[in-house]
Predict the structure.
Amino acid sequence: MYLTSASGIISLLEEPTAEPKIFALKKLNAIVDEFWPEISEAIKEIEILHEDKTFKEQKLAALVASKVYYHLGSFDDSLKYALRAGNLFDVSDSTEYVETIITKIIDLYTKVSHTTIKLESKTKGIRRQLTGFVNRMFKICFANGHYRQALGLAMETQRIDIFETAIVESGEMNTMLAYGYQLVTHFMHNCTFRNNILHLLVRLYEKVAEPNYINMCQCFISLNDPCAVAQLLRNLQQSTEEHALMSYQIAFDVYECTTQYFLRRIIQELSVSPDMSVFDKNSTIFRNDLPAPSTLMPSVSPISTSNSQSTTEEKKKHEERTKNIISILSGEVTVQLYLQFLSRNNNSDMFILSQTKEHARASICHNATVIANAFMQTGTTSDEFLCDNLKWLAQVANWGKVTTIGSLGLIHRGREEESVTLLQSYLPEEEHFKSDFVDAGYLYALGLIHANHGEKIIPYLQQQLKEASNSMARHGGCLGLGLAALGTHCQDVYQQLKSNLHQDDAITGQAAGIAMGMVMLGSKSSEAIEDMITYAEETDHEKIASGLAVGVALIMYGRLEEAESVIATLYHHSDPLLRRCAMYTLALAYCGTGDNNALRRLLHTAVADADDDVRRAAVLGIGFLLCTAPHQCIAVVALLAESYNPHVRYGAAMALGIACAAIGLQEAVALLEPLTDDPVNFVRQGAFIASAMILIQHTEYTCPKVKDFRSLYAGVIADKYEDPIAKFGAILSQGIIDAGGRNVTLSLQSRAGHLNPLSVVGVLLFMQYWYWFPLALCLGLAFTPTCIIALNGQLKMPQLQFRCNAPLSLFTYPSPIKKKKTEEEAEEERNVFPAPVLSSASKLCTRRRSWKERKQCFTDIAKANENINDVKEIHHQNESEKSNKITSKNEIEETNAKLVEKQRLHRNKYDTKTENVSEILKHIFCILNNPSRCLKQQLKFLQVVDDSKYVPLKEVSRGGIIIVRMNAGAKEIELESCFGPHLEEEEPQPPEPFEYIED
Amino acid sequence: MVVLAEQTDVEMKNADSPAAEGEAGDSKKDADLLSIQDIREHVRQIEKAVQNKEPRFILRVLRSIPNTRRKLNPNVLRGIISGFYTHSAADKDALLAFVEEPMETESSGSHRVRSGRSSVTPLLPEVDAYIHLLVLLKLIDSHKYEEAVQCSNLLLQKVTAQNRRTLDLVAAKCYFYHSRSYELTNQLENIRGILHSRLRTATLRNDFEGQAVLINCLLRNYLHYSLYDQADKLVSKSVFPESASNNEWARFFYYLGRIKAARLEYSAAHKHLVQALRKAPQNAAVGFRQTVQKLAVTVELLLGDIPERQIFRQAPLRRSLAPYFQLTQAVRMGNLQRFGEVLENFGPQFRADHTFTLILRLRHNVIKTAIRSVGLSYSRISPADIAKKLGLDSPEDAEFIVAKAIRDGVIEATLDPERGYMRSKETTDIYCTREPQLAFHQRIAFCLDLHNQSVKAMRYPPKSYGKDLESAEERREREQQDMELAKEMAEDDDDGFP
């Protein structure tokens, strides 16, 4: 008989004896899913049974109650009783009820563990129950081998102990540690807990026999612990040869993503280290002594006299290694390598600029052309355009001169040895030409050359700033000093800038405000903050206040919740300039974290503030906040891009530019496209600039829109009726999209995935061009060369090849623009040549769409090409200029073997498309020689050629500077010729102008 | 550009109007092809909906199910199944097993609907469920209930295995017909457990449509076995989703009305039934409206009100409401004799309408109405006269009944046993009380509610707000014209003053 009502069973609950009650409960437990509406009427009795201490099956009652509450949709009560049901609640069950309650419990536990500080006695009980429960969950996780889930859960619930066990028990320490590190840096936005976990990670790394030193070092960087890095480096370089090479690699990575202050501390630590003479080459020791290195080191090694000979040799070797490391850390090597790379591979198209110059009539367009030239030639040392157009340049007046001379700094960025003489050679000698603006530009240019690497120039700049007699020169001096001393936390520089600020001169003060922030970048120095905010509140000059607004934000860079106190005071300030400061501070303090709370505040201000500047800054801030999550940024900004307020639209465009920089996302471009037709001039300007930031270094294959945008820029510039403001944007865009001789990219993240402080500062300052054009040049700081450079132990470039598993044509430079022909010529050409498109080329285009299809290509070719020799020949042609024939031969054989194999698999499916084999084959992969241009999008196809003599110390696909180790068998080192002009250029560049100046 | 969401829909379950399968017999090949085309179009719509995560399109397809249903025949079904299930022969055969062999031997079904690469990829679960649902509908329509049960079991398995929000709407339909096929084979009680578990899942996943359908199925299930108590508890313990479709709301209100009426809460029942009538589609679902109207009339009578004559005059309702019309007349006149006759004549029909028990309760009302009319017409009357008028046996009986009526507040009167008569009190002017105000308030509240609901039901076409704005081209043109105009004017000025 089918049961139609539970009332009979429910009435049993009122029986005086325990037996029928237990029976009833068991029954109810079984039928509760169907009769919960009825049972819920009797929930009181069940609860009473649960609370009755004399009743045996208290827990069963709790379970039934929990299920009833679950069906009633009251999950809190359900959860409460489920916890009380204890073991009767079967965690491993896979019913919907159990799953739902488990998620609720975990949510609650996470919430409880985040508010650990104040616990009343009542919640303590629940907490205990929860902990017990969650521990059961963890046990099940471990039992089933779901270590990653456990790790994530442990982080979410802030259970360091579980975090540790999850990593230790997983059995694959290195991958788990890397995973843990990734989790922490991407999803943990609480400073203290994050640091705790990082400490734990470091401790665990030390236990591993052969840890991943690179990741370990990343932990130290995240912890902001220069001493530990120094210690690690020292230990490594005192160990085996390979470890020494590893230490070089780490040093390069460290230089790339830390501030000058951090580097200086490491160098100090290394050079002071007392143990150069006394060390033990027993490599086990260095691992053990990590916790307390400096005390252990000197005491261990009694050097026996017989070994003295070898030790002196060793000592020499280590001294040399230390010297090497210090030179890497000081950045000399990196700067030199990049400078060489950029100047040798310069591939900018001068025709674009000269075309632009023709149309640039308004003074701001003139200005923009100069800036665009600086972007295009960043670091390439090519001043061709400026030298060719001296007369045109002479038109500039006043602050335009600062921009023009400052642009020289960007062009010669990195030429630090001869910076002063080099720049002075450009300056007019005649006394009457000299002006205060020229001085300002000169100092600014010096700052740009030495940006973030100003050890040597700082004293000179300080001297110059002290001697400066007028506000313009002081302005340039402050900016230059700030750039050079970026992130040094240097007190005397700071004091000097502060005294400049206190002169209460608008022009000087503005620069000083920014420069103070740059010097104290990310220091959270409360003294500096107080100085700056009080001054910003007192001053009458808007310029100074806006400079200080940027400065304060820079000081709070990356400090997460530690910046909250500052933000709280400024967030509701009556002065819009200071509210703007709050926006910048929010953006930089949480830069790249995507923190929800910060995002909420920015969005609120973006739509609610009364001041346009504040709103624009808030939307810009979203770009910084989400710069590691471009897709999210697109989703957040999509609606803002359709705002009625043009400032918000402009901000939205820029936010996209920042967050999607160099990624070339279709969605982002699609959002920007309507903005390029916006009725408001400056919105169009923003859309142009943002699109260039997104499309930098993209080819038609990686982002088909690129061509449209290039022609759009040119069209806008040539349009007679277009507003100069929009033209300004288009001209800058031309500069950005072809920046650094088409060899640099724009990214706020370093290659290791850290935020790159230099880039963040560069982009933020660039955004200030809205108020002050010369600051536009600062975008140059955010450009990073896209290259792959392999170095050996002597920090020289060995001859070595990389293999890129994608056709080179996907990533080459865009073809130079041809001069417009006259009508007749064009007509003639049209008659003579039909459309110059090869049938094979169009086929290629369609085939290249996806990697999968490219693989299909492989099979096609193989089918057509049974004869291996043919292929070989083609390859030889392809690489005729390369010397290393043996390698390629072997490789070709190998690839052909693969091809034949694949062919067998696919023989039946594809029978057609067998022509043009050789044509296609050229595009399948390409060989890159050691120092080489390699786009971001290209990196993932990169690998070392198979039988190379060298082994890279980190994945090649990271790009940048990579240390390689020589294989045991290999002997010869052929060094690439590092210096000298680029061979393929038509004519060698003349030596830089040089003048001997006698003091 | 505001479009009201269309609300015409769907046969309601009570409207088991004769299915249109008679036409299927003479359907020609062209018609079949056309229906296959239609269904292909539906599938395309569903695919679009899944891609854009826009349930509107699926809704559109499901709205046209009654039409599609009429066109279904074995030929069409075979054509669709073999056209779409190109990826898996097993699935295809499983479905084809439910479709009878086509009468014409020449096969029209072998044309491929899905071509090339896509024929290998599995169907979207939504499309799969939709086609399966069509097969099930055909089975129900051709009265093959046993097979329908099997088919719906398979379908439910498919649906339960997925957790996709885009599937929710189709799944809701599947639940309904699953329940329906079990009802037709009279084994409804077996699926109560499944319905409960699906309801829980739907609630957890915020699947509002599914939730609504499942609650309704469960209520129907309980009411089928007259488990009013269970049904009432379910209603009081669960929340009917606000955003459920109108049809589900209508059903829900109807069931609610039945439950409330059974539990003697007549005014609540009446309110719900009126709402059910309002929510029901106005042009379709005649059967549903008939059923609801029957119950509504009964409840109104129970409330002591007399339904308006107009109700019984409406063309689609006239015939089915005829017994109730007579019933109303009996009650209105307070004629117990006639009431008895009506009961006798139409008893079986009332039973079939589930209103018989309620109508039995009307007897008191008949008497009460009679007493009320007596009270209105006589200021003083003796019990003996009342007994005569009402056809009661003795004056004592009449006296007792009057006493009860006075206590219940049916009439305002006093009994004077010594002098042997009943004295009616003067009627008060109702317009002096708050009654009219309350009545007005009720109407205003109703109107406002209606307005709000229609606003909510409006839909704005996406991204059309920018249409009226000036495009960039137009702006350029305008600016250029302005500039030229300015130039011309400047030139004119020059000309004027040489």
